[in-house]
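Subject: Secreted protein

B.,
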Amino acid sequence: MRKHRLAACVAAAGLVGASAVAVGALSTTSAQATAKAAPVSRAQTVVGPTSESGGPSEARCPEGMRVLNGGYNAVSFSQSNGGEPYDGIQANAPLADGKGWFADLMTGRVQARAVCVPQAEAPQVAVGPTSGEHVDSDARCPDGTSVIGGGYYAQSWYKNGWGESQDEVTASAPIWDGKGWYARLFAGTVQARALCS
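Prediction pasted inline below.
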């Protein structure tokens, strides 16, 4: 009888031990699965300095990184005595070398912002030709790549005798076939820039 109890205790201990090992293995496997499932973000946001009035702001990526996307924050936006805006966003685009993003207001102060990723993961920047007046500029992606973003850089911008904006960006969008980015101003000349991957 005593032998049977001892054998039963040993068997029970073995089951408990096996269960503990199984639970431990399950916990380890779950932790590994969770670790694999959790995306590791290697993107970094860089905020450029606030520009002087009418000057550009550049958000430069750290060494070894390139721009994935970007934008701007108008710190001041010029307005008339009646309170109507008369400023213009003359640039909102990746830098031509792909190392950041820049923005420019006609008269106000702006701060560029860039989302940067490791160089090996970053898109290429394609720079379009400067357009004529009222004409599109197309930045075409290299063969084998497609557009994932873009922007524009106004080369000329019309204003009246009081310095108020008489121009506007009427297009800044992907080209219909997905192979580039185009831009157009109401009156001035512009250069499109595409992010291609």
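Helices lie at 2-37.

T.
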